Amino acid sequence: MKRYTLEEANQLLPVIVKELDSLHNLQREFDLWHQSFQQVESELNPQEKMEWEKRIQYLELEAELFIANILSHGVWFEDPYSSTLHIPAILNGENGVFKWHPEEPLITIYESNEKALNPLNLVN
């Protein structure tokens, strides 16, 4: 598994931000599409309904691609409901994890895997 230095991880952020922005835009499009579908679903014939469902499935596949692109860097989401990412890290020779949330311009939290320490704030 790749472990990032703080500099490397911060350089990775613009790539991840681009994918997250695309994912959020897609989520808005999906929500609008799904709301529209629910409003007209009862009026659609089977062929039309199938076309709408195909579009929704396509949007879901596209979302999976954006998520896969993010995860391909070896990072992972803190939990299914959070945008906070964990980035495998090495800091001062210790393995750990950088934590980053899209609202932050840079990584500010490091947690060591090797010591039972509280998270280290990288900036004051």
Automatic annotation (TrEMBL):
It holds the Pfam family DUF2203. InterPro entries: DUF2203 (IPR018699). This is DUF2203 family protein. It comes from Fictibacillus barbaricus.
